[in-house]
Specification:
- The protein is an alpha/beta fold and 283 residues long.
- A hairpin with a 2-residue loop joins β5 and β6.
- It is elongated and about 70 Å long.
Length: 283
């Protein structure tokens, strides 16, 4: 297969998982290359996501690595054979790569979780709300780039709006709902939009109330995309220099625990809707 100039995060993840299997088997890259009938350069490129791997070769590698996790092997084979040219490719070269990687990641997710404290999660945002956020970014964005980002964010909502939607659960702090991003009218529309989405069977909205005592588990937003098997889950966190994609198994376990802890401390969906109704009346 030809080498890729810019492998996506999903392609890099596939290579990384193959490297983990090799290392767990106690084999060097040169030994694995010999078993596969390729040279060490090709093996390195496969594990870096620079070169693709066929399903046959992937399953041969798994057999050579004595991997007995058949669900994981099947999931990796699906990743290896996927040729999806997603809608996000329209934005390649126009928006930062992490925007596209996030879109691809959640498009293929088995489920999506969000935790947010200061803003409404992106998948629930209206265009006016997203535009107000991007307009306040520093350094300031040119108007055309702001609109590109808004359109991209609205396109991401396809995963909860398509015929086979991704199960989605979001935990959002009451503070994020009260902050008037874009002004009163935009906030009113945003809250109504959240209520409408929360009525869908595959969307669960829980509010973390101000009145919650002794709460200091998470101080930053978290986007959790579930893979076909738990080992392929990914957490995305925003930092000062861009998005951080986390897939180490030990860290994934920590984030799962944190999510469940915050979920347990949040209002149930019915009480969350009641709170949002009250906020709308206050506006």
């Amino acid at each position: 297969m030809p080498a890729r100039r810019h492998p996506t995060a999903r392609q890099v993840r596939l290579g990384a998982e193959l490297r983990k299997l090799r290392e767990a088997a106690g084999l060097k890259a040169t030994e694995a290359a010999s078993l596969l009938g390729v040279n060490s350069v090709q093996m390195s490129q496969i594990e870096a996501g620079i070169t693709g791997v066929s399903e046959d070769r992937l399953r041969r590698l798994a057999a050579n690595y004595a991997c007995s996790d058949h669900e994981l092997i099947d999931a990796l084979a699906t990743m290896a054979t996927d040729r999806t040219k997603g809608w996000w490719e329209e934005y390649r070269g126009l928006l930062p790569t992490p925007f596209l990687d996030l879109s691809e990641l959640e498009y293929h997710a088995a489920h999506r979780w969000d935790v947010d404290f200061l803003h409404v999660p992106g998948l629930l945002q209206t265009a006016d709300y997203a535009r107000a956020l991007f307009s306040r970014r520093l350094p300031e964005l040119p108007p055309h780039e702001t609109e590109l980002r808004v359109r991209h964010r609205m396109r991401r909502r396809v995963i909860i709006e398509r015929a086979d939607p991704v199960p989605y659960e979001t935990l959002v702090h009451e503070a994020a709902l009260r902050i008037r991003v874009g002004g009163r009218a935009a906030n009113l529309t945003q809250l109504a939009h959240i209520l409408e989405l929360s009525e869908a069977d595959h969307v669960t909205v829980r509010v973390i109330p101000f009145g919650l005592e002794d709460f200091a588990d998470i101080t930053a937003a978290m986007a959790y995309s579930g893979g076909r098997v738990p080992k392929l889950d990914t957490v995305v966190r925003d930092g000062p220099h861009g998005s951080l994609f986390i897939d180490a198994e030990a860290q994934l376990g920590v984030f799962r625990t944190l999510f469940r802890r915050v979920e347990g401390a949040s209002l149930d969906p019915a009480r969350s809707r009641d709170l949002i109704h009250r906020l709308i009346k206050e506006l």
